[in-house]
Please model this.
Amino acid sequence: MGMTHVTVTVRNPADTSKSWEGLFLVDTGSYDSLVPGKHLRTIGLAPKGRRRYELADGTRKEMDVTSADLEFMGEFVANTIIFGDDNAEPILGVTALESVGIEVDPRTQRLKRLPAIPLK
Model:
């Protein structure tokens, strides 16, 4: 399977003039989204708590989290964001995708909009 990427803008909800834009790996195996911590700090975001995550290799790690506004594909969502290592690849998790009714087409590996967001 190929990898899917999408351009995402991360905004500080307390000051929407502060933002960072990057190319994110779409990862349907990740619940939350991850941004290199240096970019979050640059736009004035600070950790609001810590959560324990299981990484792809099976190890578990406590990581700082915050909340931010994400914009991609013309959609907007408030989301939990993980403070990644400063050199980490940005990841767009499945919670952000599903919140706006977007999924990955397994055949084409492209993002597609659902006809409606499920509310059932």
DSSP finds two helices and nine strands in the chain. The mean pLDDT is 93. The radius of gyration is 14 Å. The first strand starts at residue 5 and ends at 12.
